[in-house]
Amino acid sequence: MAHRVHDRQSRLPVAQATVLALPPTSQDLRPRWTALDSLLCGAFAGAVAKTVIAPLDRTKIIFQGLLLLTNMLYCVCCTQEAFRLIYCTYMKHGLLSLWRGNSATMVRVMPYAAIQFCSHEQYKKLLGNYFGYQGKALPPFPRFLAGSLAGTTAAMLTYPLDMVRARMAVTAREMYSNIMHVFVRISQEEGVKTLYRGFTPTILGVIPYAGITFFTYETLKKLHTEKTKRSQPYPHERLAFGACAGLIGQSASYPLDVVRRRMQTAGVTGSSYGTILGTMREIVTQEGVVRGLYKGLSMNWLKGPVAVGISFTTFDITHSLLLKLHQMGYFTH
């Protein structure tokens, strides 16, 4: 009897070792995609896209605010005048002046893009579970809703940074020296509420913009997969899909973007824009519908598709790279 007990005890560690040495299942080998990965990829994608189009973005804000570095007003906004402004800025203030306010842009864009892409992945999962499309492409309305919710979430959490970026873009360097100086001076001279001026038109503009942009991009990828039988598009195809998404989304929401910028820069332009309807009415009365509400749209058609295409492509490529690194065991959670 004692011999039997001893024999069983001697075999126990072997059995435990056998259990511990079992090969991992296919589910264990599957790379795990976390919210942190989405945040990192989104932040990087936003930073790359905005840095590339920073000179055009600053020029667009100046046009929308009716303020030039030479203290002149542009009555007609077109691509030719946009490049003329960029050239004059370069000649007068140097190359780096074209990226004036880009540090504030990075402070805003990186958390904005990180939150937007991360929340979009989460909303897709939630809506997929709710509508019964787990692991599958969402139908049109939930696809649009996921994009709208993602954009709204990001805008709500990062809006004061957008206000700071707009102020730095349309003012001389002597007025605001850095990001913190903008926050302090606006709070002291105009009140903390000013940091949220233009918040309502921002949200109203983000809902169609983000919804249409994500919807268009996801739809084009889905149609591409169905037609070519390839699970992933090539990078140049992603750029094209993103460009189309950005063009459609920004064209649809552009008037509210103009209203938002006018309300944000009212403190430095001497205007008194208080409400959305009041601002829109004043713009239409003084400048007309096309030259007022669509001021700078031609430049947006140039920079918008480029920015969105680069952003979506960078996110997808970085996403795929991180998944491969997870699969190879470089990262553990």
Automatic annotation (TrEMBL):
The coiled-coil regions, if any, are none
Would the keyword Transmembrane turn up in this protein's UniProt record?
A: yes
What keywords sit in the KW lines?
Answer: Membrane, Repeat, Transmembrane, Transport
> PROSITE patterns in the record, alphabetically?
SOLCAR
Q: Positions of the Solcar repeats?
A: 33-126, 138-223, 233-321
Annotated Gene Ontology cellular component terms = membrane
InterPro entries in the record:
MCP, MCP_dom_sf, MCP_transmembrane
> Mainly resides where?
membrane
GO BP term, pick one: transmembrane transport
Please verify whether the record's keywords include RNA-binding. no
Query: Which Pfam family, giving just one, matches this sequence?
Result: Mito_carr
Q: Which family does it belong to?
A: Belongs to the mitochondrial carrier (TC 2.A.29) family.
What is the designated name of this protein? Solute carrier family 25 member 42
Q: Which organism is it from?
A: Seriola lalandi dorsalis
